C-alpha cells in the first residue's frame, strides 16, 4: 500500500471487502477507513483497507482499531465513481459497507502505524 490516499494500488487491490454476515449488535467499524464488518470477520480476515493494523493477527487490535459506536451504513459498489464516497473521503477504498461517521479516534499508537505506512488518517469531525 502506498501513497497518501490510503487506497490500494491496482496490483494489490482485492475485489471487494467482506460484506457483514449479520446486522446485529456485533457490527463494528474500522476507526481508520470506516469499513463495517462483524467482530468475527475483522478477527478472521482483518481490514481489507488497513492490513497494516494486523487485526487478523492480534485480537487486541480488533478491539483497539474498531468501534461498535457508529452512525449509518452505506454500501459502495464503485467507490471511485460515487459522489457519496468522495464526500465521505472513502472513494479510494475497496467496495464494501462503510459507516457514515464514527465518533472515536484511532489510538495514537495506531495513528503512528498509519504514518509509518504512508497512509493518511482523518480523525472524526467534531460537532
Question: Which keywords apply here?
Answer:
single chain, alpha+beta, Herpes Virus-1, 4 helices, 5 strands
Which secondary structure elements does this structure contain, and how are they paired or packed?
Elements: E1 27-30, E2 36-38, H1 39-45, H2 59-65, E3 66-67, E4 70-76, H3 83-87, E5 96-102, H4 108-116
Antiparallel strand pairs: 1-2, 1-3, 4-5
- Overall mean pLDDT: 87
Anisotropy-based shape: globular
Give the CA-CA distance, first to last residue: 32 Å
* Number of E-state strands: 5
Q: Which structural class do you get from the secondary structure elements?
A: alpha+beta
Largest sheet, in brief, is: 3 strands, antiparallel
* H/E element order: EEHHEEHEH
Beta fraction of the residues? 15-25%
Number of helices: 4
Radius of gyration: 13 Å
In the predicted model, the low-confidence regions spanning at least 5 consecutive residues are 1-13
The CATH topology of the domain at 27-114 corresponds to Herpes Virus-1
Question: Which CATH C-level class of the domain at 27-114 is it?
Answer: Alpha Beta
- Helix residue percentage: 10-25%
**What would CATH call the architecture of the domain at 27-114?**
2-Layer Sandwich
